[in-house]
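Listing S7. Sequence submitted for prediction.
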Amino acid sequence: MRVALATEAAPGRPNEDFAAVSADAAVLLDGAGTPAGSESGCSHGVAWFARTLGSSLLAVMTQKHETLPELLAGEIKAMAGLHEDTCDLGHPGSPSATVVMLRRTDDALEWLVLADSSLVLDTGDSAEPMVIYDDREAQVGARYRSAMDALDSGSPQHQAAHRDYVEALRAHRNRDGGFWVAATDPLAADQALTGTVPRESVRTVVLLSDGASRLVDRFHLATWRQALNLLDQEGPEALISRVREAEHSDPGGSRWPRGKTFDDATVVTLSLP
């Protein structure tokens, strides 16, 4: 298996994405950042949460035989135990992250997607690849984002509106009818999208945080097939570079309204023999 991985923080901010790969497993987490002026109830921070949970998930995927949701539930519970004595885990802004998990067995690829990072499976026998994306947060967010999207992304007013938007979403986090992320509740793992595909049918797998997938799903500057071709020919750094070019071309969000002018971007590509 050939692996290529690239990650780049949004300018001026710590990277809250995490990705790692072993011989038979891969994981990507995108931590949900806390806007300036908002509280999280946690002294450790989102980057710590994503890095610690992601590392433990990669380890247990190759050491244990439980299903991916069972493994995720167990590690969410274990994470809570790491900081329940020092942090307010009941706070609605307690650190959380999207999760993509992939495990390779002798004859299959098992996958799990929770929240809005993306998993792309290229079988090579169709015009467009199979894309797994959990859009429940986007569906909820559509109710609240009009005021934010009407403002210049570089303005203090937009920053305040983004903070209000994030805090409004917190009321729907890990609730029926809302959206689900890895945070403090192990039951969120049962809400993940999961599946299995024959190993021999897939030639390339790509894991992307939403800061990287925005080239396709928000900016619409490439199809998924074009993005895969770019990754194959030039690597994940090239895709992230295209994202940054688009972000710089629209700093005020007039063409592509968005909460974050720039976002952490992470891409993992796995080419299977």
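Caption to Listing S7: primary sequence and predicted structure tokens for the chain studied. The chain has one domain: 2-134+180-251+264-271. Residues 46-63 form the longest helix (18 residues).
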